[in-house]
Design a protein that fits this description.
11% strand, two-stranded antiparallel ribbon, elongated
Amino acid sequence: MGAFYHHYFNQQHHHPPTTDLRRLFHRLTIASSLSILCFSLVYLLTGGCESELTENSDIKPSARDFVVRGSGWAQEGNGTDALGSSHPALEGNSSGKEWTAARRLPQALIIGVKKGGTRALLEFLRLHPDIRALGSEPHFFDRHYARGLDWYRSMMPKALDGQIVIEKTPRYFVTVDTPARVHAMSQDVKLIVVVRDPVTRAISDYTQIISKTPDIPPFESLAFKNRTTGQIDSLWSPLWIGLYAQHMERWLAWFPRSQIHLVSGERLISDPAGELGKVQDFLGLQRIVTDKHFYFNKTKGFPCLKKPEGSSKPHCLGKTKGRTHVSIDPEVIQKLRDFYKPHNQRFYQLAGQNFGWH
C-alpha cells in the first residue's frame, strides 16, 4: 500500500506539470494566432480601404469640377456676392493642398473704361468656374493705395489653386499713377480694357450723371469751352476719358502690349460669346462661356444670360444699364467726331486694330 501511494505521488508530482505547461502553451499559441487573424481582418476591412482612398486621393478633380458641383451660375459658381464675400462652399479645406481656398492678389484686372461695358464683361466672366471675381469696385490703385497690399488682398474673394482672381475698377485706365502702382504689385498681371466709341461713351456718361444730378447744365454747354468758336473742352471728364490713345500710352510705358487685351464694347453687345471667347483665350482658360449662355433682350437692347438651372428667371444687368441716352444736337455730335478722329487713329495704331468708330 505504501509503495502504491509512493508511485502515485511521483506520477502526480513529476508528469502532470509538464503536460499542463504544454497544454497552456498550445492554448496561448491558438489564442495568439486567432488574435493576429482578427487584427488582420479588421485592418483589411478598415485600414486597407482607408489606405486605398488616401492613395487615390492624389487623383483629384480640377478646381472647375469642384466649383461646378452643386452650383452652375454666375455668382453661385464663383461663390462671390456683390460685395465680394465668399460662400462657405469654397472655404473648406481638404487633405489636398490644392483644395485650400485662400485670398490672393488678383492675376487680372479690368481697368476700363467707364460706360464701356465693364460690368457686363465682369458678369459674363463670372459664369466661368475658374474665375473668382470681386463684385464691388475696390478702387485700390486710385483711391485707397495707402491702405497697402494686405488690405487689398483681404478684399479679394477666396480662390482655389488654378482659379484666376479678377477685379474691375474702370477708373484705373485714366488715373495717372495707376500703371506704376499696378506694375509694383505684379509685372505679370493681365490687363483688360473695354473700349467703346468715345462719342457714344461720353453721351452715356452724361446720361448717368444727369440721372443722379438732374440740375447740371446741358451736354452741349459742358462739351465746349466756347460754343461760338466750337472749342472742345477736352478736360471735361466725359470727353477726357475717351482720349484712349493718351491713356494707353501711359500703360504701354509699364506693360507690353501682349499683356493688355482690348474688348470692343460694341461687339460685346452684338456678339458677347465671340468677345468672351477672346478674353478666355487671353486669360489662358478653356472656352466654357459660349453663345449657349446668352440671349438678346430687345427691350433693353442688351444681351442677357439665359435661365440657369435652379433659377426661375434669366439674368440681365440692372436697370441702370441700357438707359435711353439723352438727345444731343447732331451738329455737336459731328464736331465731337471730328475732334476724336485723330485721337482714334492714334489709338488704332497703338492697339493694332481698327474699332471702326466714325
